[in-house]
Amino acid sequence: MRSDWVSRAVExxxxxxxxxxxxxxxxxxxxxLGARLVxxxxxxxxxxxxKHRLAASLxxxxxxxxxxxxxxxxxxxxxxxxxxxxxxxxxxxGLDFVAVIPAATSPEKIRLLEGLGARCELVEGGVSVTAVxxxxxxxxxxxxxxQFANASTRTNWREGNVASxxxxxxxAQQIRCPDWIVVGAGTGGTSATIARFARYRARRSSVAVxxxxxxxxxxAWRSGSRDEVGSTSRIEGIGRxxxxxxxxxxxxxxxxxxxxxxxxAGMRALKEFGIDAGPSTGTNLxxxxxxxxxxxxxxxxxxxASLICDRGERYADTYGDDxxxxxxxxxxxxxxxxLVDFLHGGDVPSFLTDARVPVxx
Length: 361
Prior knowledge:
By secondary structure, the protein is of the alpha/beta class. 38% of the residues lie in helices and 15% in strands.
């Protein structure tokens, strides 16, 4: 018989996951683009990011599957945001949580984790966070949530997800069904959920995934091989050095590899328009602009939808700091001002048309 604790825990997760729906935000685009960009602000979740939904799905599965029990310890490997959301739910359930994160994770994210009662296991570069998490999870009573393996399978893609909410809000506001939905890939779960839901509901939206420099995801999509190996991503939250199990390239209509300097420039340009978000949202902006520059559908405005993934305040000490960026090999020139000028109706920046950025085919 199911315990009273599990029943209560399921209700706690359900109530924490069903907060007020996150809003849509329109990003102003120059008229000559003939395009409209709407971003769903997932930073407004109680735990501050898109990963709130994933954490709820992973923990709900663990409860309903009998894996998570009172007095247990949850853990996951993460670059920060998923762990923060998981720590939020663990605190609400009265469970311990251990975050296995890269040592280079932003100090603000570590402070947020510790503030939620999480214990942080910092892993130096060159060591796999997933391998460390697997080793720790062998302890009795510990449950490895494993976002990288489970993100695309433990999220209900038929209903109650980011895609169903996005389309419902677009319909309610009489915004045309998007030609493109632009998202990054950290696990691959978000792009898989959106693509599956669109097919299930016969929505004629294509899915474009934006990826940082060197990520194995982009290479795998191009080559068709899951054996591709990339470099460690410098854009926190997206891009992987290996192809994770939750990445589903067959569901992706287009992939765009965005230079890291432009991801940061996109993040900072958005702040000029009142959108204070992290670098992966900057990557989403650049990918959306590249698709808009391809040209509008004949006779009508192109509609693009994307996500504001998390809050910019988490990156004040990192992507908001030029000295820190320089230590990572990312040096900004005039990219931010050029993007702001362009969004105000100025010239198209050369970096959006030159050979450094492959325009989608």
